[in-house]
Design brief:
Length: 460
Amino acid sequence: MRPHEALESHNDSRLRLQTIVRLRWFAVAGQTLAVLICHFGLGFKLQLGYCLLLIALSAWLNVYLRLRISGRHRLGETNAMMLLGYDIVQLAGLLFLTGGISNPFVVLLVAPVTVSAATLPVRSTFILGASALSFAALFIFYHQPLPWAGSTPPPVLPDLYKVGQFAAVVATTVFLALYVRRLASEARQMSAALSATELVLAREQRLHALDGLAAAAAHELGTPLATIALVAKELSRDLPADQIDNKLLTEDLELLHTQAKRCRDILQKLTRAPQERDPMHAHMTIRQVIDEACEPHRQGPVIVDIWPHDKSNAVALSTDGQVISEPEGERQPGIMYGLGNLIENAVDYASSRVSVTAAWNEQSVSVSIVDDGPGFAPTVIDQLGEPYVRAQSTKKLRGGERSGLGLGFFIAKTLLERSGATLEFDNRELPESGAIVRVNWSRENFERGLAIATNRADGE
């Protein structure tokens, strides 16, 4: 199951039995206190026996649930909806006995619907909301008289006031349900997105752990390889050189010595610290960064154009006509992954061509990724980079399958921003169509790794 499908599962809920039992205990305590204060403290003539009976039913239901089921049990959708539905029915019974829509506590019908909006799928929330509002509408016409103190007849509220009360309940229910559901959805999406990011970072940590294993293996294998080389060298020196067979054996021993030395050199490379990497691979120009990020997509049906195309074009001019050399920085996996993800998204939605352009001056470095697809949907362009926001939702991917949860953009944006970059999203101006993604660094941030490595080398 994909993450976004798990968020909207119709077979389970995120409501634990312990949570609903505790909320009902609060309701039982509050209802009991309100009934007793109104009846004995304010002198309102309530149907006390029936009211306390309904409250007692909720208390006994809580006791039964705690005895039969573990409090940590996570309720299924149907069971959770039934328990919240019971709360609506029980509260509706109390409201019927105490004035119906005229009772100011009628707003409490919103509470079970709000809990459902935060923990249950839309279907269950809609059913519970419709049930609560149906009771509220029924209470406009059918209910016991509003309790009142003293000999004065209880006030008779006008029908317009009752309709206004009902409208207030409807507005409160809809607003709170939508608001709470939105907050809960964003929290779940952010949690899932951070989990996905942690998986990516955990993968990188495992790769770093392999470096340690390689160093340990090199250390352990170094001694036996040295012994093999030494024995081969001594055997070659002790053999008489005047026999043909000995000459052939000497050549084999020399070959064995040479290969053992080669293995030792390879193991020594594995033990190098990260700052001792080959400069040809440790440092990359911006053109090389783009070239490597685009490499997996060059054989597909979409043409990927890169500028500058070669080293001869990799120059820029300052305002006074001076040549500005191409920026060069330390190889950073986060930059490679982030740019690669953005280019992959552009290729997925492009009609025929994607252009990746690098530009720089004395202060800044930027990469622009432009495709000729449908462009970013106006409704999401301001939200790109947030988890579970689809980048381009106006067109299906090549092959007819719609994809893209927004996690790719979220992770790419996170990793690129860690390198000091800022991202801009835009659409091409009409009549052309397509999306534009710009990644901007200050030149200092892009070349920071190279400067650190250079200073270290000078110090040595």
